[in-house]
Predict the structure.
Amino acid sequence: MITSRPFGTMPDGRPVTCYRLTGGPKAYADILDYGGTVQALVVPDQNGAPVDVVLGYDDLDGYRSGTCFFGATVGRHANRIGGAAFTLGGNTYTLEKNAGPNNLHGGPEGFDRRLFSGEIDGDRLKLRLTSPHMDQGFPGELQLTVTFTFSPENELTIRYEAVCDRDTVVNLTNHSYFDLSGGRNPMGQMLRLDADRFCEGDENTLPTGRLLEVEGTPFDFREEKPVGRDLHTVTPQLTMCGGYDHNFVLKNGGRLRTFARLRSPETGIAMRSATDLPGVQLYSGNFVTGTGKGGRAYGANDAVCLESQFFPNALAVEGWDKPILRAGEKFDHTTVYAFG
């Protein structure tokens, strides 16, 4: 079942809506049409008590002024593009530099700042957005649909579908910050990540093009361990960005497969993540700040992001899958966060 309620008003008078997708007992997902945002994700703990497992804000003003992308649909290109420019079809497109010399998450006015059009379609919520030609500097008019479902088994499925009238670049993700501990011990969450390699980053967290083996490094999550166990290990790849903010190479071969499991010993809540995209950005919330839902003071390392996506800066690296959407073709990718 999906219901809706008002969630504030944009400065130009347009209403913002919060849609509630009901899952199993004591479980629901609240999705905003502003930013295509997962505002709340509530599931029962081991004692049956409901726990909201994502960070966010109680009101629209928080999302409009916030800088952490809490729960947002990020685009037109998630993560970083080196030098804030790319070449496609013989043309060079210049973007805004909003992360040092690079472009991050499409720019300061990305999809996380847009008001989508919502439609309830049975047990599915469809959020639609038109991104015009040269929006944020990207070519082509893009028609985007993001479909959310939340099953009785507490599986949140996010499907991204897009078409464009010109060749363009598309790399979409959801930027939810997960804290299955309910604020009790975020870095004590146990993570297993099915990845043998990760992208080396430079001083601006931009991939250099080298893929490093996780073996014998703090980046080895192939066996379950606390996210924070090796967080402060003195190594250039961690110290340059204050923790994890790296893309891991998935082994799904373009098929929808489980790539990570996260659980909290404090609440007993576990989450399984699956995607058909080639990479996932593990981010340990190194620069989280502000006051969130229920007045909780947020700080660094208060949650974990698992952002499924194409590799950052893939356009500039030979041999990496390219986030190029050809005119008339369809971008169609899915990510699942399943709770138990």
